[in-house]
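Milestone 3.1: sequence recovery, worked example.
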């Protein structure tokens, strides 16, 4: 899987698709998130990173996600100095998507491709929500703002737990249709 993903970085199609996904992710991030009240806001830019993981794999996707994070900061600084921890979080997300969703990866459930994609989408979002969003990003917020982790964690855990089913369904729809498109046209 890693060797195949490494060779994906040499393909023009992969480079162009990753560039398009970086631009799409920046455009989606600039738009308002799905807002379901004060507690639940779902940003959809994660789908662009997931597509990079699906197409490019666990070697190329983290690199593209990190480059995308830096480009987004250059285009629209987020109210402070650049902090590389968030770039590390973006790369970690790209890696997780690449490991679990890469099109050349092994199926977890051999009988049904749809259930396999759904399970992989669930595992990817669960790991990203727990490891990246709740753990890493809370540490970065603590390091940059000084807010106590005990204050940050409960709200971040609840937000990510409530958002998980919605994000899984969105991710499943995106990966399912990208997979159909790739089989048909590429």
């Amino acid at each position: 899987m890693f060797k195949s993903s490494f060779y994906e970085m040499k393909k023009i199609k992969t480079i162009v698709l990753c560039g398009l996904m970086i631009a799409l992710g920046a455009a989606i991030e600039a738009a308002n998130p799905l807002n379901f009240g004060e507690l639940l806001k779902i940003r959809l830019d994660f789908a662009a990173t997931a597509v990079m993981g699906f197409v490019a794999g666990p070697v190329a996707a983290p690199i593209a996600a990190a480059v995308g994070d830096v480009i987004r900061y250059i285009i629209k600084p987020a109210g402070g100095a650049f902090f590389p921890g968030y770039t590390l979080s973006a790369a970690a997300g790209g890696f997780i998507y690449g490991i679990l969703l890469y099109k050349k990866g092994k199926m977890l459930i051999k009988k049904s491709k749809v259930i396999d994609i759904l399970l992989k989408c669930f595992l990817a979002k669960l790991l990203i929500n727990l490891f990246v969003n709740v753990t890493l990003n809370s540490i970065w917020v603590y390091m940059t703002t000084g807010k106590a982790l005990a204050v940050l964690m409960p709200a971040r855990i609840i937000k990510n737990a409530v958002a998980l089913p919605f994000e899984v369904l969105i991710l499943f729809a995106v990966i399912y249709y990208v997979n159909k498109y790739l089989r048909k046209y590429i």
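Strands lie at 34-35, 41-42. Residues 32 and 105 are 33 Å apart (CA to CA).
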